[in-house]
Amino acid sequence: MKPFKRITIKAIMCCLIFCAFSQNTSAQESTKSWLDPLHLETSFEAGSPFKKMMPFGAKLDLNYGIGNRLSIHAIGQADHFVPKNGMTVDYNKAINIGGGLGFKLFPKSKDFNNFELRADVTTTVNSTDLKNTTYSAGIYWYGESSKRGITPVIGIGYKFRDYRNEGFSNYSGYYVSLGLRF
């Protein structure tokens, strides 16, 4: 089986597992605090193949809800760009930091949990051949976390990477994100 197909099948299986176990695990309820809208998300992202390369990476997202619809995000992301032969080496990875905004589609609905549109921009901070500025937009689903529990986060979207080095063509493609929200 090709490496791209294996990663896609694993991503779909993880998505189904997260959906099946979307129950909250939480401690006792407490009074409201200004920290209640503060959340930390960790996720794994895999992108669609482009010019015999497939991007994947780990993402750390610290977000804060403003009101019942808007959220701001501080993002750190480590990306690997895997060539068709599957070899990963130091020169085909990048570490990006940036920020973004989110907008909840159904803020008070118990039927839909939370669907959020997100847009963000990140840029490379380490010295690498793959320096880039990444623009992404996607829709994310996460379970209700009013009791400060751990919930799954599932996202799909579109990314555009503008490479700043000559010899690299810009990347554009879809991505799938699977993770946990604390």
Describe what you observe in this structure:
The structure is a single chain. It contains 1 helix and 8 strands. The protein has one helix spanning 3-20, and strands at residues 38-47, 53-66, 70-83, 93-104, 114-124, 132-142, 151-163, 171-181. Strands 1-2-3-4-5-6-7-8 form an 8-stranded antiparallel beta barrel. A hairpin with a 5-residue loop joins strand 1 and strand 2 (53-66). The relative contact order is 0.20.
What are the main properties of this structure?
182 residues, eight-stranded antiparallel beta barrel, mainly beta, 8 strands, 1 helix
Give the helices and strands, then pairings.
Blueprint: H1 3-20, E1 38-47, E2 53-66, E3 70-83, E4 93-104, E5 114-124, E6 132-142, E7 151-163, E8 171-181
Antiparallel strand pairs: 1-2, 1-8, 2-3, 3-4, 4-5, 5-6, 6-7, 7-8
User: Into which percent range does the helicity of residues fall?
Assistant: under 10%
Strand sequence of the main sheet, in spatial order? Answer: 1-2-3-4-5-6-7-8
Task: Report the span from N to C terminus.
Answer: 35 Å
Which consecutive residue ranges, at least 5 long each, have pLDDT under 50? 19-30
Radius of gyration based on Cα positions:
17 Å
Whole-number mean pLDDT: 77
Give helix and strand order, one letter per element, not per position: HEEEEEEEE
- What percentage of the residues does DSSP assign to strands (E)? over 45%
Biggest sheet character? 8 strands, antiparallel, barrel
Q: What general outline do the C-alpha atoms trace? A: elongated
How many individual helices?
1
User: How many E strands?
Assistant: 8
**Structural class by SSE content:** mainly beta
